Amino acid sequence: MTNRRSLLKSAFTIAAVFVAGLAINNTASAEELDTIKEKGVIRIAMSGAYPPFNFVNEENKVVGFDPAIGTEIAKRMGLEVEIITTAWDGIIGGLLANKYDAIVGSMTITEERAKVVDFVGPYYSTKRAVFTKAGSDITTTKQLDDATLGVTLGETHEAWAREQGYKIRTYKGLPELLLELEHGRVDAIANDSIAAILAMKKNGYDFVAIQDLETEAFGAGIAIRQGNPELKDAMQKALDALMADDTYLTIANEWVGGDIR
């Protein structure tokens, strides 16, 4: 009888702790948007090394498509924005550690990432591309088996390249990738096609895409901590509104030269 009562007591205790935990989590999630509004500032993170989507200009200011979108979302929520730059391979960890409130940094929406963060968006779409120098002997994906491929550490392109069994070298961002390919330290690079093409055009690189790469379009989204439906809803509504009027196209034309929805 004593053992049975002890077991029942333990079961009730566990259940009570579980329910209390749910209540705490629900309260926290409901309060996160309120906390941001009280501060009047939303902190958004990006690498600062992904031109023209986000990069540091000559005035040491983070500019580009991503900060412009993030700033406009904040404005429509009645908030100021604080932009934080951080290494891409640890950017989700920083979000979970509450170092910032959202990631607005051209993050590809994937099932694996969606297990640990929630996404707002997507706010643009692109495809994977592999580039080599013009005149390179590498013209097909089959030849990548014997090549060295440059990728950004922590990006989905790194995971993809490892799955293919390619020999890779990892870098902090797109500018480094382009320089490494230009100087012949890698044979090819894998990156989002739009960002790479625009950066190559701006910097005068003569690179070409491998044409037989089979890839589907994927969306870039804004990552936030899970369990914050009010924040997610408010950000999604602001994003939908700016994408529905001329604001999105104005931003896109300025930074990437056209509509990329």
From TrEMBL:
**Which parts of the chain are coiled coil?**
none
Query: What PROSITE patterns does the entry give?
Result: TAT
Q: What is the originating organism of this protein? A: Cohaesibacter celericrescens
Q: What keywords sit in the KW lines?
A: Signal
Which positions carry the signal peptide feature in this UniProt record?
1-30
- Record-given protein name: Amino acid ABC transporter substrate-binding protein
Q: What is the lineage of its organism?
A: Bacteria, Pseudomonadati, Pseudomonadota, Alphaproteobacteria, Hyphomicrobiales
* Source taxon at top rank: Bacteria
Question: Which Pfam families is this protein grouped with?
Answer: SBP_bac_3
Q: Where is the Solute-binding protein family 3/N-terminal domain?
A: 41-259
